Prior knowledge:
9 helices; seven-stranded mixed β-sheet; globular; six-stranded parallel β-sheet; single chain; alpha/beta; Rossmann fold; 24% strand; 2 domains; Quinone Oxidoreductase, Chain A, domain 1; 17 strands
Amino acid sequence: MRAIVIERFGGPEVLRAAELADPEPGPGEVRVAVEAVAVARTKDVAARAGRPPFAPSITAFPHVLGTEHAGVVDAVGPGVDDRLVGSRVAVSAVLTCGNCRACGQGREEACAGFRLVGVHRPGSYAQFCVVPEANVQPVPEDVSLAAAASLAANGGVAAAQLDAGRVGPGSTVLVLGAAGSLGSTLAALAAFRGARVIGVDRLGRDPDRLAGLPLAAMIDGDRPDLAEALRTDVDGVGDVDGIDCVVDNLGITELWNAYLPALAPMGTIVMSGAISHDPVPVPLLTFYLRSQSLIGVRTGNRAQRAALWADVANGFRPPASHLQLLGWDRAAEAHAAVERGEAHGQIVLRVDAGGGSL
């Protein structure tokens, strides 16, 4: 098969075409003929560059990146119903042990043996990828495989974030980095579930970054009066006493300081990113006097992924304006765009079953 591999850590230029042996599915596994791969900032781009948290787990080269993807089941291993062959599927990259305390409680996202396709085993920047049967999700015929790859990459995490923030109809949700791959999916899903959504992003760079999202308000995250703007815009989206839930996919200290005063009593901050790795000041007195919560969310579990696909069955779709399709021969270009902060929405690589120009 044709694949894109890295033979060392480095810049986007280390991505190169290669020919590898076709992988064979083992017991309980399926082989997917890959058609679409979501490009992930941390799991792909940072790992390729040798940055934590996942690069230290890549110990053998050449390595095939590529986590969540979509395609058609091409072969099955022992113990798997061969009627799956030919099925259109989306693939979760999360691998769990099934035996630890977290897995026993249905909290696979906290599994002690948490691993990822594309990091701890060969990924989907390839014509074929082998994964456990439990990781595949049938895709409705009216959902493109590019959209399915985006949903696999972002939908389960977004569902987990909304669960953690107790977001329901009428909730007011602030989404940091709303133009990003996860942020745009989260904003759309929150609105689909009946929430009022305020999106924050760097609109000074591109005023149209949030176009096409179902937002009650949008705010430039670079404006010097951001804290005041948040309070003003919250007042403008309905009869609310502050923000019920902040979903922070960035973890930037300046943004934390701006949105914290707008958090409502009993409000929740859901943290799913730490771009700067800088510490943020947590006013404990305020948190307990106002009954507020701070929760970290790494990814979604099986129940949350199932809830996401139930939403898809009921009509939810990722925002079309935030889905960018590139041929897989442009993987280096996609990585570079993500690193420069120029990408918005989800970049999806289209894998050419015939090998294309690789």
